[in-house]
Amino acid sequence: DASDIEKGTYAHYMLKEMDEQPAVIRNIIQHYQNENGDIELTEGVRELVSEADRVYIVACGTSYNAGLVGKDILERIAGIPTEVHVSSEFGYNMPLLSERPLFVFLSQSGETADSRAVLVEVKKRGYKALTMTNVPGSTLSREANETMLLHAGPEIAVASTKAYTAQIAVLAILAYDIARATGKELPFDLMPELARVATIMDSIMAQKELFEDLAERYLKTTPNTFFIGRGLDASVCLEGALKVKEISYIQAEGYPGGELKHGSIALIEDGTPVIALISQPKTNLNIRGNVKEVVARGANACIISMQGVEHENDDFILPHVEPLLAPLINVLPVQLMAYYAALARGCDVDKPRNLAKSVTVE
Ligand code: G6P
């Protein structure tokens, strides 16, 4: 049938979509730069953000997790205070807002009912909204003042992968554009670094078997697992845990490494797999200390690090990218491990139980 053709030679949409990530990043670069290689956003988007004193990112699921990374990028690059909220909470329990809030709706589908309910409410109050979505003409796009497209191509697997990396890249582009407009100093050149990220993504996807091995070793039979990291890595850990829960039904928690000792470390037993993401120089020593703490309690630690903070015996060492963009790279191993864990456990990867691709009820 038609869906078989679209999937091509891939066993699952999820695998195909993970593989598409380097091409998606290149596509995004193409769409958001002019012939001089400078970032080019529409006047409408530029006007919206120039009026704002604070950004409120509103999203669900994987898009929410991408928003957490986006917050750090917006604050550090653009210097604009940014909050991230779960749509289903925000709609009914709106926090105190700044004077000139800008709402940014992150949604792969552009149809998520929880997010739409918030958009309806903020419009009623007279606020402006920007939607970042993969689907042109979707409800959240039509109803917002402006749209930035993700240019990721159709995402069919329930477990979202390429939309996550696309959202982070587009948020980074927005942050850089704000920074440029307000004369902020830029720590590195974004577009060439994104191009490098795409190349590195290719190299990671060319080594899938290694992550299949790690999934077999750490996740095949376990009832539970932890993903730990600090800073940006902690945000990626939330996404890693979500992926593992969604498709392999392993009870998984993403946790900031330093917070573990305040309760959750009680769950570490002999053989509990703990997957540590280590990419941030600032917190390298601390997170390695946290790994020692869990290993001392019997954990089976899998370390995925990055050049610059690597130790020789780490399970996988990713090529170096700017630490601020590390989530674009270190989410790939956790996506792949979740995928292969689900396969090893005999789960239906593309159609996990109880889940829908797009949730149109509140
Ligand atoms: C559903 C999907 C998730 C997705 C979330 C938000 O729960 O199963 O994968 O992250 O909705 O979807 P959106 O289209 O708004 O990004």
Automatic annotation (TrEMBL):
It catalyses: D-fructose 6-phosphate + L-glutamine = D-glucosamine 6-phosphate + L-glutamate. The active site is at residue 357. It is found in: Cytoplasm. Its EC number is 2.6.1.16. The keyword Cytoplasm applies. One of its GO terms (molecular function) is glutamine-fructose-6-phosphate transaminase (isomerizing) activity. Catalyzes the first step in hexosamine metabolism, converting fructose-6P into glucosamine-6P using glutamine as a nitrogen source. This is Glutamine--fructose-6-phosphate aminotransferase [isomerizing]. The chain holds residues 237 to 598 of 598 of the full protein.
